[in-house]
Design brief:
Blueprint (H helix, E strand, L loop, with lengths): L1 H9 L6 H13 L15 H14 L3
């Protein structure tokens, strides 16, 4: 559900944002001492801004 929220919120503005959330989740489930997967690049600030503007224009869900 969290991933669906990220996909819905970022839409076309930052469509690959879900990769980063998934990597964070996998890292949080890793056993102590296990190698951690690398985090994908964060979305550009401009892309996140566009996503937030898109959300405010869409109104309440």
């Amino acid at each position: 559900m969290a991933n669906a929220g990220v996909i819905n919120a970022t839409g076309d503005a930052a469509p690959d944002s879900w990769h980063r959330l998934t990597a964070h989740m996998l890292r949080s489930y890793a056993a102590p001492g296990a190698p951690l997967p690398a985090l994908p690049e964060a979305p550009a600030p401009a892309a996140l801004y566009r996503a937030m503007v898109r959300l405010t224009r869409a109104g309440p869900a």
